[in-house]
Hints:
Order of helices and strands: HEEHHHHEEEEH
Oligomer: single chain
Number of helices: 6
Amino acid sequence: LYLYYLPDTDMLLPMKNIFNTQYARDISDKVRSAIHTKQQRGEFVGAFPSYGYQKDPANHSRLVIDPAAAQVVRRIFDLFEQGWGKIKIARQLNAEGIPSPSEYKRILGERYHNGRKIGQTTYWTYATIHRILQNQMYAGNMEQGRNYRPTMHGKAVQLDRANWTIVPDTHEAIIDRETFDRVARMLEGRTRSSGTLSRMCLLIFISFS
């Protein structure tokens, strides 16, 4: 009896594996769908809010302002409007010993990992300032869905900004809309000027080659 039972069991294994794989895929799709639905409703679904905010203790899907960090965010926008460059702002914050967003979360005891960080750096950088100035969360809009994960445990793929899930007026703004829009125009203008300068330099280089 044992000799006949073993082959039958082996023949069922491939089918069981197929069913298990399909079941895991269905669960993954349902989880992603539920998360996307919450994002579209303007509910916060991430593990760590943007620097300047914290989860509402009474409702983790809602964000409230972190006063200490919010003060730094306002200062970054203010300095940029005064004409300070992103590198200069980062250097100033480092000189004053103000913890960077990732270091601030660590000080608060949060088990935060920043995949963009270089090595074990704990200081402000050009990229950090740039991300803060572009982040609509500070204008009160819930900005989520920046990445897409094909499978539950697969590698996340960054989406184009046009495909992010943005819901307006979901939480208290740190930066008023007028200021945020002015800074956005300044960022766009500087990017355009930088692109024009790069093209001019290339043309000069070609003409002398």
